[in-house]
Amino acid sequence: MSLDNSTERKIYGASTNGAPLPEEQDTTTVQRPGLMARLPFTGRTRKIVEWLSIVAAVYVLITAVSVIGSGFGAATGGQAQEIFAFAHNPVVGLVIGILATVLTQSSSTTTSIVVGLVAGGLPLETAIPILLGANVGTTMTSTLVSLGAAGDRNQFRRAFSAASVHDMYNLLSVAIFFPLEWMFGILGRVGTWFAGITTGADGGIIATVFTALGNAVSAVTDPGADMIEAGALGVLPSVWAGIAMIIIGVALILLVINFISNMLKVLLVGNVEKMFHKAIGRGPISGIFSGLLITVMVQSSSTATSLAVPLAASGKFSLWQIYPFTVGANIGTTMTAVIAAFAFSGGEATAAMTAAAVHLFYNIFSALTIFLIPFLRPLPVRGATWIGALGARNKIYVVAWLAGLFVVLPALLIGITALFS
Amino acid sequence: MQTPDNFDAVLQSLSDEELLDHLSQSETPELLQAEVRRRLQVRADHELRAQQHAEISQMVEHLEQSRVDWQAVREFFRETLLEFTSRAEDPDQEGH
Fold this sequence. Notes:
The complex is a heterodimer. By secondary structure, chain A is mainly α. Chain A has one domain (43-420). Chain A is 78% helix and 0% strand. The longest helix of chain A is centred in the middle third of the chain and has 42 residues, at 238-279. By secondary structure, chain B is mainly α. Chain B has a domain at 4-67. The longest helix of chain B has 27 residues, at 30-56. The model of chain B has no long low-confidence stretch (mean pLDDT 79). Chain A binds chain B through residues 9, 11-15, 18, 28-31, 105, 141, 144-145, 147-148, 150, 153, 265, 269, 272-273, 276-277, 280-281, 303, 306-307, 309-311, 314, 316-317, 393-396, 398-399, and chain B through 48-69, 72-73, 75-77, 79-81, 83-84, 96.
C-alpha cells in the first residue's frame, strides 16, 4: 500500500499531552470500502483507480435517481397526486423525511430520492416537508457517534453537546421555516425561480450552461437508466416494474452514496485536515465555509458533523466553534441533490432542480436567519449545553432525547394532525 | 511625558522579568497588572491554538471515530437500561 501523504497517513505528534507518538503505535489509516481495499494497485495507479471509481459511482448515483424518476412515473401512472394524498399533509411529509433519513443515516440519500420522485411526478408541495425532515433525521448519526464517548463523563458531555447542537439548530430551523412554508410557500417559490434560471425557462446564459451540462450528463446516464427500465418492464407489468425500479434506484443510491463518502474520506483526508487548520481561530464565517467545503468534499453532512464530535470531546474545541461548522455542513450536503438533478432533461429537469433548490435555499435561509437574528443565534448552543449536561448526569436523558426526537415527536405530530384533520 | 498609548507600547516591549520588577516598585500597578493579564491571555490563546492544531493533526483517527460504533451504541443502551431498572428497584442508589 502506498504511503501517500493525503491517503494513508501516519499520525505524529498528536497525543493529548503534545508528545509525539511512537511510530509503531501510530499506523491508523482511513479504511477503504471492502472491494477497494483489496485492489492490487499501489501509489499513483491506485489513486487514479480510486478517483475513477468515484466518477463511476457518481454516474451510478445519477442513473439511479433517473431510474427512480422513471419508476415513480410508471408506478403511479401519472396519478402521483392522488396516490400520495396521504402525504399531502405537510406534517406527514416532515415525519416521512425524518424517519427515512434516520433509517438511511444519510440526508443526501433522502434528498436524492426525493429529487427523483419529484421528477417522476411527486408534487413539490408534498416533497418540501420531506426535504425539511431530512435535515432533522440526519442529526441522529452524530448523536449515535457521541455515545462512543460514554465511558468518560466529561468527554461524553462535550461529545453529546456537540452532536446536540446540530439537533437543536435543525429543530429551530424547522420550527421557523416549516410553518412559513405551510402558510406562504416561500421555499417552493424560490426553488421554482432558481429552477427557471438554471434549467432553461428564462433562456439566459445560466440556463444555457446548466441545460447543456444537464443534457450532456443525461445523454451519458440515460442508456444505463433505459437498460434498467427495459429490463424491469420486460418481465413485470407497468406498476410492478415501476415499484421494482424505485427499489433498485433506492438500493443503488444507498450503496453509492456510502461508497462515495468513504472513498472521498480516504482520498481527501489531507485536504480536510488542511481546511481545518486554516479555519482555526478565524471566526464563525470561516467555520461555516469550512463545514460547507468539507461536507462537499466528503459528500456527507453526517460524516462532517460526526467529525465534530471527537473534536469537541477532546475539550480543545468549544461548542461555539463547532456550531458554525455544523451549519456549513447543512448547506454543503445540499450539493448531492443538485448533482442528482442533472439526471433529467426538459420538464423533468426543471422539477428535479426545483426540489434540489428548495433544499439548498432552505439551508441558506436557515443559516442567515438564525445567525443574523441575535436572539436566535445562541439558542442551539444553549439547548445543546443544557441537554449535554443532563445526558452526562444521567444517561437515561440521552435515551429519552433520542426516543423523544425520533419516535415520540413524529408520532405526536402525526397523532395531532390526524386528530384535527 | 508618556501618553497612555506609548506607555502601553513601552510595557509590551518589556520582558517578563522587567515587568515583574516594575510591578513590585510601581505605585500605580493597575496598568502593569493589565499587561500581565494580557500576556497570560495571549499565551493561553496560543497554547489552545497549538492544542487545536495537534488535535486536527489526528484527522485520520477522528475520521475513524466519526463512524457509528454499533457495538458501543448497543452497550450504551444496555448499560443505561440496566442502570435505570436498578435505580427503579433501589431509589436511594447514588450516581451515574
